[in-house]
């Protein structure tokens, strides 16, 4: 078996080829769908993934291993000037692993960002968002706390969500430990992590606790009972397909769970008024793209200050592809820049 470092070098070299060449190597023509054009590097990766078994055909354990191996090929290095600390914090049924990211030029007025990784509630860990969290820390000039919540099916809904709620409340009481103002913190996440972040803001409203300074929702799953057009139009996308999304939810939810429950589908909440300011990011080639846009519209309609951006040519999960897909790296840095802007006085 080839050395992983060599494999990563070869892949990165291939993906740096000009777009027309990548398209010739992956079908011959550009992929147009729904008025969007798929990024050539993602087209190349999608074409190659056709020869791999679907995640939906694997056990959760095997899916985690395959995902970790694949994402290791795509991720970028830790950002310069960012210090990383591994720690444990109290969870509802035991300690939770976490990583704290502190930039050298941290803004002492910026809130602590608590972040939840993607993975459908089934796969993923602290390495999944390692590079992106360091980008967030360096560009937004804030401390970032990434939390390793419990995964299904060993720990079904609402275990992972409850872990994030516990981590949030612990972080709120310990912001000074990370150089952030007392009790001042933001919440963020991508995909299922975005689901957790949106629900957490709503949960704070329901319990009368303070709202986050910001909710950063990156291609969030906000309506798991949804049958939007994008679930069909982009249902065969890579790395998230409709089949894989269905598999995730089959592992994450128990037979007694209602997909329309607002702690699974926050888009279905009766009111979003009074929630924290939001940055909502979507990817164009993603079965979930309609959900994120709908949530941004609903937030705006409820009077919530909301910034919405869709990266039309990118696919779901792009925050973990910043080391291999140039456009994904640009998007990650732009998102971190939006977070930085949100932390600065108007």
Q: Would you give an account of this structure?
A:
- This protein is α/β, with parallel strands linked by helices.
- The protein is globular and about 55 Å long.
- 38% of the residues lie in helices and 17% in strands.
- The N and C termini lie far apart (54 Å).
- The chain has an 8-stranded mixed sheet, sandwiched between helices. Strands 1-2 form a two-stranded antiparallel sheet.
- Helix 5 crosses helix 11 and helix 6 packs across helix 7.
- It has 11 helices and 10 strands.
SS strand fraction: 15-25%
| Whole-number mean pLDDT | 95
Structure summary, number of beta strands = 10
Low-confidence regions: none
Which geometry do the CA atoms define? globular
Largest sheet: 8 strands, mixed
Structure classification: alpha/beta
Straight-line distance between termini: 54 Å
Q: H/E order of the elements?
A: HHEEHHEEEHEHEHEHHEHEH
Radius of gyration: 19 Å
Strand order in the sheet with the most strands: 3-4-6-5-7-8-9-10
Percent helix, as a range, is: 25-40%
Number of H- or I-type helical stretches: 11
Task: Please tag this protein with its features.
single chain, 346 residues, alpha/beta, 8-stranded mixed sheet, two-stranded antiparallel ribbon
